[in-house]
Amino acid sequence: MSERFRDTGVSWYDLLADEILVRCPRCDGRALIPPLRDGAGSGVFAPRRLLCPACGHGRDWEGDRVGRYDEPEDPYFRLPLWLQSPCCGRTLWAYGRRHLDLLEGYVAARHRERGLSPDGSGSPVRRDRGASRTLVEALPAWVKSAKHRDEILRAVARVRATLGDDRTT
After folding, report:
1. Is 15 helix (H, G, I), strand (E, B) or coil?
2. What is the pTM (predicted TM-score) of this model?
3. Are 51 and 32 in contact (CB under 8 A)?
4. Distance from first CA to last CA of the chain, Å, rounded?
5. In this predicted model, what pLDDT tens digit does every residue of 131-145 receive, in sequence order?
6. pLDDT surpasses 80 at 39
7. 64/42 Cα distance (integer angstroms)
8. How does DSSP classify residue 79?
9. CA–CA dist 100, 104 (Å, integer)
10. What is the C-alpha to C-alpha distance for residues 155 and 153, in angstroms, rounded to an integer?
11. Are strands 58-61 and 48-51 parallel, antiparallel or unpaired?
């Protein structure tokens, strides 16, 4: 178990720049939603493509609105996330591996620190892209509670097991 966690300033928007893992609406297998980097749009509103390696299902998303990002579904196609597990009477979920790693690091740490700017000024971590809060600041109280640490870490292990040996996400 890690002794210390420092908030690095990752926001929900930052996580949406990564591939999101969801349940395929056709076969219920693990599907991917990567941002397309073809020059059209950027960040949260970059075009996306749903891809299922198991059944070949695919579809595109191009829009100017995304769904909520406080539910266990992707904000583009509104599909259930692949990385989720019941925990503490709720659902623990993550968009992808980086999100899961961040949750695990935060929950496992005995000492949790707000991030400080890397410029050495001692000021709080910079929030990019207009994000009002970092991911860590926006975590629900039940995830932040030390009394749930062991149960949450067991849920993280269950969720991580669904990734198998795939290290691309």
Report:
1. helix
2. 0.84
3. yes
4. 23
5. 467 889 889 999 999
6. no
7. 11
8. P
9. 6
10. 5
11. antiparallel
